[in-house]
């Protein structure tokens, strides 16, 4: 028999560990971060009526979970009545999946929504999608991983996949820095007035505001995008200064104003796996060990202001970033999802030598 609990955080956090076991590539967000996302501290949720979350238990053991929430700014901007689900993690059990999805659907209907779509994982710069291929590849920070049975469970409950996306990985240890821009092109851009702005702990607040400005301008015409407020951006990025490696993020200015940014951080997933995504007394030792041996990085955002697109600003940043990563001992770099319809970014990834890592889709169901 399946028991559904609502707003029970301990079982919600534990569910994927029981559902998937320890031998899969799954990595949980830090427990404290997940609890913060599921609270009114999250700027997406001005009050607790905008979200909820459910855990499915079988025999008293949590074996599945799901969130249900509204992104009201998205619905207002795109004239939608769409509810969102997120953090859908579930054992390969049709009864459990159905119970969780019905709970989320009923909540969305009661909120007046006519469609339910996910995964969207609870922040303005949301992790998105359900993995549909690449299950054997370990995820980087800010990438979703789940087993191959999840798409089947969703489709068995009437969900349709759409909006295909791909994540990428670039190996830096098997070939030299990608030659995405010639030395002469690089010199020409710098003579024109483009310059790298300093990225370090004392300037990180300024650089992140540069990145937010670029994000809102460069993605404004993308489907489903909603401009990100400073409060929303800082909510997710507030701890970056403690984990960042100042060498590997690049922000380009043109005549003192932001032109492009590529924000990269060390991949924290190996550390989170060792800690079980929980704060422990051994954290300082584990962190020092991780920091001494880290060799994976992940690009969590890249973009160029519209007026500077097609002027080689992105290759300028990516080439500089790759050289710095190689010099710092990084062997691989991952990237968060790129939608199939974003042909320019897909071409740039291919040109840089990146290879597809994971395949993802959104899954939606019309609510009668």
UniProtKB/TrEMBL annotation:
Protein name (Swiss-Prot/TrEMBL): N-acetyltransferase domain-containing protein
Organism: Ruegeria meonggei
Entries under InterPro entries matching the protein: Acyl_CoA_acyltransferase, BcerS-like
Stretches that traverse the bilayer: none
PANTHER family: PROTEIN YGHO
Source species, domain of life: Bacteria
């Amino acid at each position: 028999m399946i028991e559904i609990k609502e707003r029970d955080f301990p079982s919600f956090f534990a569910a994927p560990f029981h559902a998937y076991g320890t031998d899969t590539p799954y990595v949980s967000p830090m427990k404290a971060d997940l609890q913060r996302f599921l609270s009114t501290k999250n700027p997406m949720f001005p009050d607790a009526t905008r979200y909820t979350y459910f855990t499915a238990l079988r025999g008293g053991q949590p074996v599945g979970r799901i969130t249900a929430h509204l992104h009201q700014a998205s619905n207002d901007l795109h004239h939608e009545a769409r509810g969102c689900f997120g953090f859908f993690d579930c054992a390969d059990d049709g009864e459990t999946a159905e119970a969780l999805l019905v709970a989320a659907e009923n909540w969305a209907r009661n909120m007046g929504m006519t469609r339910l779509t996910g995964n969207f994982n609870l922040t303005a710069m949301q992790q998105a999608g359900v993995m549909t291929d690449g299950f054997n590849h370990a995820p980087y920070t800010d990438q979703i991983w789940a087993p191959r049975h999840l798409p089947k469970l969703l489709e068995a409950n009437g969900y349709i996949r759409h909006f295909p996306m791909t994540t990428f990985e670039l190996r830096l240890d098997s070939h030299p820095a990608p030659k995405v821009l010639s030395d002469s092109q690089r010199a020409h851009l710098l003579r024109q007035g483009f310059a790298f702005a300093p990225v370090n702990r004392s300037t990180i607040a300024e650089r992140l505001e540069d990145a937010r400005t670029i994000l809102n301008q460069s993605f404004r015409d993308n489907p489903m995008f909603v401009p990100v407020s400073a409060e929303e951006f800082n909510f997710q990025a507030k701890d970056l200064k403690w984990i960042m490696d100042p060498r590997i993020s690049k922000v380009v200015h043109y005549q003192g104003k932001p032109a492009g940014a590529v924000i990269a951080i060390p991949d924290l997933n190996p550390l989170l796996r060792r800690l079980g995504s929980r704060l422990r007394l051994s954290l300082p030792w584990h962190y020092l060990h991780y920091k001494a041996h880290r060799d994976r990085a992940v690009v969590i955002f890249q973009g160029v202001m519209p007026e500077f697109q097609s002027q080689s600003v992105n290759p300028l940043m990516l080439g500089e970033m790759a050289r710095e990563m190689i010099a710092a001992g990084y062997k691989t770099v991952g990237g968060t999802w790129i939608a199939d319809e974003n042909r320019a970014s897909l071409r740039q990834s291919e040109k840089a030598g990146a290879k597809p890592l994971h395949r993802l889709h959104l899954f939606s169901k019309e609510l009668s």
